[in-house]
Amino acid sequence: MRELVFEIEYEPGSNTVADTLAEYPQARIRSLSLHATTESLWRVDHITGPLEALTDIEDAFLATDYYTDCLTPGTCGATQRTQVLESTDEMLVLYSYWERTDSCASVPHMALDHLGHGVLFETTKEQRQNTWRIVHSGEGDIHAFFSQLKASVGETVDIDLQRLTDASAPVETTAENGALSPEQREALQAAVENGYYESPGEIDEKGLAERLDVPRSTLNHRLRRAEEQLAKQRVAEMPSSDN
Fold first, then answer.
1. H helices within 15-106, ranges in order?
2. Same domain, 162 and 192
3. I need a labelling partner for 94 at 20 to 30 A (CA). Which of 5, 60, 177, 200 fits?
4. Could you report the per-residue pLDDT of 117-146, keeping only the tens digit for each?
5. Where among 113, 137, 166 does a domain terminate?
């Protein structure tokens, strides 16, 4: 089995849900279940965040111009229905189902076309980033998959490959052994070299993003992910308080 992890970042105005999440940095959408056939797709998503965010995200899912996981710019003409399975002031569970049309392009359907059946999907959506983890047999054509993916999204989406490895391989946790993607390492190194972490800071996030020629939201996400990995490694290396 092979594991593929990549991140899709939507430009403003290209995805209704991403636009809504960008307004609520503390909100997060995680897939509990995701399945696709050649004709349809259905998934269950667990959404957390403040009540206002949950309300706006639910409205975004119900919008007529939004189809879960469809990457086609504009309206693809698909038929979708969304149902609330559970709702509280801090959590929302949504079931979504849509039927594919000839103009639809989605990650799961491209995976079916190029990676074969028996593919497992896991997604996390935060702000404008949608992180995909795909586990597949390893016998498909991964290059054809990425070629079609890039051709489908055009200039409205940025794709960042983070990991392509054996699914049974241990998850690395340091920059030296490959936990951080090249883009994350570049962002972290630039932040240190340009005094982003100095007190007071010698450069702010906007200025650093301009130097790297990336959207500010992209830089923010890459730094947060890099900091998360390094923090977890550091804590794991600390002696236990029981000793």
1. 16-23, 51-62
2. no
3. 5
4. 888 999 999 988 899 999 988 888 988 998
5. 166
- Across the chain, mean pLDDT equals 83
Sheet containing strand 79-87, edge to edge, reads 79-87, 91-99, 40-48, 28-36, 120-126, 129-136, 2-10, 157-166
Alpha helix stretches (DSSP H) within the chain: 16-23, 51-62, 107-115, 142-153, 182-193, 205-212, 216-237
Enumerate residues 6+ apart whose C-beta is below 8 A from 239: none
Domain housing 135: 2-166
Q: Is 74 helix (H, G, I), strand (E, B) or coil?
A: coil
Identify residue 199 by its one-letter amino acid code. S
The token pair that represents 65 in the structure block:
């111009």
Q: pLDDT digits over 162-211, tens only?
A: 777 775 544 333 344 446 778 888 999 999 999 998 878 888 888 898 89
- pTM of the entire structure? 0.69
Side chain identity at residue 62, one-letter code: L
Token pair belonging to 154: 């055009």
**By three-state DSSP, how is residue 216 classified?**
helix
Structure tokens at 12: 């403003």
Residue 243 lies in a domain: no
DSSP 170: P
Nearest of 95, 102, 96, 97 to residue 76 by alpha carbon: 102
Q: Is residue 171 a part of any domain in this protein?
A: no
125 in a domain, yes or no? yes
